[in-house]
Amino acid sequence: MSGSNNNQQPSTLKSYMDSATATVQNAVGSLTGNPVDKQAAAEKHISAENEREASHAGASLGPLNVSASGVTVDNEDRTQGKKDQFIGSGKEFVGNALGNDSLVNEGREQNREGQGLEAAGQLKDYVGGATDRVTGAVGSAVASLTGNPQAKDAYQTQHDQGKTNVRGVEAEVQKQQA
């Protein structure tokens, strides 16, 4: 997704700002006794909560990470690790069916190695994504201050891709823990 559409993408920071605004609006409504202010504050709180939830949504679909910010491809270690686990499990199954202990052990070892490789890839995607998010956010702010819209868009894209990688890893880890 292009960074120029950022206003339409869910933002955790925006949700916190909206929540704070709603709290102030609610306090004003309480002080003045104005039910319209209190109702507007309640609606803003709900909107902020929905925005916060949407900004944390993400999924890992095969080799893809998907979030409201876009789609990215898994680190190759994650993909290879999943393949190794699949092949290792197959060898283990066939070895058990044939009574071949050597094939069973080979499959278990390949499965174990695949789990390690996948975990290493998840870590690379998570750390790289977190780094891209910070670099993109800071770069976008600086580019905005200096009046460089192309750089701002490029940094926003970097931020969005980083966020998508982080959300994809989070979704995958949650699924593995379930």
From TrEMBL:
Domain of life: Eukaryota
Ranges of Basic and acidic residues composition bias in the record: 40-55, 75-85, 169-178
Region (Disordered) residue spans: 27-88, 145-178
Comp. bias (Polar residues): 145-159
Record's protein name: CsbD-like domain-containing protein
Organism this protein belongs to: Sphaerosporella brunnea
